[in-house]
Here is the input.
Amino acid sequence: MIRNSKIENITGDKLINILHNFENLEKLCMIPSNLHRNHIKQLEKHSRLKEVLLIGGCTEKAERYIEENRNRKLFIKIMHTYGFLRF
Here is the structure.
């Protein structure tokens, strides 16, 4: 099942907590505003999540953490927007 939802004006901590409520979530594509390394670590703890596409919105430390931990159970890809996507 595919669901498209628009969640706006929410902190990274609240977003991660909301995502943990989706117990059957396996794939996720989102445009976060400001995800930190600890948010990525919390995403890795999700029981069924296997693949994440982040379109911009990560701090440098978060991106470095993702690059250093590529071989974990969760595949995370970051797509840089360079200002092309505006929502």
About this structure: The mean pLDDT is 85. The radius of gyration is 12 Å.
